């Protein structure tokens, strides 16, 4: 017997990229009219995700500080505290924190940037330095 997806073609479903599901959950939360429960989020996600999967992703996002939760009865109501850029920055910091030689990682990162991104980074660093001095 072969694995088949819903359209019957013997292909495996596409695997999500790292962080893709977290980004989808955050996007759903940003569309919410206020704090919402996991079932509300589940209804708005593409695919047939289990409720427990949605809870797991929300809990991971909460541990990362990108969503807040408040107790409502026996469950939680969830709200976003970070956008996609904030989530990407958290992932970048996690990778950097996992490396022994931060200077080498940062140097390699900066030297691999295209000129436009390098100038953008320099401008952001200068702005941050200026704000710290005020």
Instruction: Give the name of the CATH architecture of the largest domain.
Output: Orthogonal Bundle
Our measurement of the CA-to-CA distance between the termini, rounded to an integer number of angstroms, reads 68 Å
Global mean pLDDT: 86
CATH class of the largest domain: Mainly Alpha
Write out the strand line-up for the largest beta sheet, numbering strands in chain order: 1-2
The H-and-E topology, N to C, reads as HHHEEHHH
Number of helices: 6
Organism: Streptomyces finlayi
GO biological process, one term: negative regulation of DNA-templated transcription
Family: Belongs to the BlaI transcriptional regulatory family.
Keywords: DNA-binding, Transcription, Transcription regulation
Please provide a written account of the structure.
GO terms for molecular function: DNA binding. Keywords: DNA-binding, Transcription, Transcription regulation. It comes from Streptomyces finlayi. By secondary structure, the protein is mainly alpha-helical. It folds into 2 domains: 20-80, Orthogonal Bundle (Arc Repressor Mutant, subunit A), CATH 1.10.10.10; 100-134. Helix content is 57%, strand content 9%. The chain is built from 6 helices and 2 strands; from the N terminus they run αααββααα. The protein has helices at 20-31, 38-44, 51-64, 84-97, 102-111, 115-133, and strands at residues 67-72, 75-80. It has a two-stranded antiparallel sheet. Strand 1 (67-72) and strand 2 form a beta hairpin. Helix 2 (38-44) crosses helix 3.
């Amino acid at each position: 017997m072969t694995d088949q997806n819903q359209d019957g073609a013997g292909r495996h479903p596409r695997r999500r990229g790292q962080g893709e599901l977290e980004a989808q959950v955050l996007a759903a939360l940003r569309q919410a009219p206020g704090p919402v429960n996991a079932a509300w989020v589940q209804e708005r996600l593409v695919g047939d995700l289990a409720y427990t999967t949605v809870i797991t992703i929300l809990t991971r996002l909460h541990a990362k500080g990108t969503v807040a939760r408040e107790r409502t009865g026996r469950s939680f109501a969830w709200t976003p505290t970070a956008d996609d850029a904030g989530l990407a920055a958290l992932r970048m910091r996690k990778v950097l924190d996992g490396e022994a030689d931060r200077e080498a990682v940062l140097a390699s990162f900066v030297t691999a940037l295209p000129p436009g991104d390098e100038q953008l980074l320099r401008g952001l660093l200068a702005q941050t330095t200026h704000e710290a001095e005020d």
